[in-house]
Design brief:
mainly beta; outer membrane lipoprotein receptor (LolB), chain A; 13-stranded antiparallel beta sheet; 3 helices; Histidine kinase; signal
């Protein structure tokens, strides 16, 4: 009986690792809408509330457009205030010491797509590092590496949805997935960092995709 249990364990283990990192990433893309539909996504508006602390809760809007245009706006006292953005040439963010937007020369905009979309063409390698529980959910743990940059992604073993993303300076958790057009997107995003200086929870109540933005949407004003 003991030998049968060991044999069964070895069989289960081999089945787990029969899945490759590439397979898992492909399953995520397929089940969340398909690679073609993700590539047809050209712009997005996220609207909701962001919690920066117990009593610091603000309405928020995030505008994004290919290839890397972005602007984040929060509402304080019924006034919309841009706190970060990239207009294609300049990256800017709120300087809270002066309470003004400041241009940052070394600002590095993030790509519109997640790194694991077409990751091989972007120069990343993917490695399956086994399984790990995130809360009550068992997940595949996949590491993407490019040069010295590493990011770990946790995909639910049942749904293949992305539940957690761990970068060097930030951990992002995703939940409450809902249908937006042909795509599945998270309506709850939580960010935490080792220094705990930029942690937030964002609860999204509306997502609009492929809207045309006015030409000056992302410009520093």
């Amino acid at each position: 009986m003991k030998k049968l249990i060991i044999l069964f364990g070895l069989i289960c283990s081999s089945l787990i690792f029969a899945q490759t990192a590439k397979d898992i990433i492909q399953q995520n893309l397929d089940k969340s809408g398909g690679l073609t539909n993700w590539k047809l996504l050209n712009s997005i508006i996220l609207q909701g509330k962001v919690s920066l602390g117990i009593n610091d809760i603000y309405p928020i809007k995030i505008y994004q457009q290919r290839p890397n245009l972005t602007k984040t706006v929060i509402t304080i006292g019924k006034k919309d205030t841009a706190i970060e953005g990239f207009d294609g040439e300049k990256g800017y963010a709120m300087n809270y010491a002066t309470n003004k937007l400041q241009v940052y020369e070394n600002y590095k905009p993030e790509s519109f797509d997640n790194d694991f979309i077409d990751y091989e063409n972007k120069g990343f390698t993917a490695e399956l590092q086994g399984q790990e529980k995130i809360g009550e959910n068992l997940c595949y743990k996949v590491e993407l590496t490019k040069n010295v940059n590493k990011t770990i992604y946790y995909f639910d073993v049942k749904t293949f949805m992305l539940l957690k993303e761990v970068k060097k300076d930030e951990t992002l958790s995703y939940s409450d997935y809902r249908k937006v057009g042909s795509l599945l997107m998270p309506y709850r995003i939580e960010s935490s960092s080792p220094k705990k200086d930029g942690d937030y929870v964002m609860l999204i109540n509306k997502i609009e995709i492929n809207k045309e933005f006015p030409a000056n949407t992302f410009k520093l004003k």
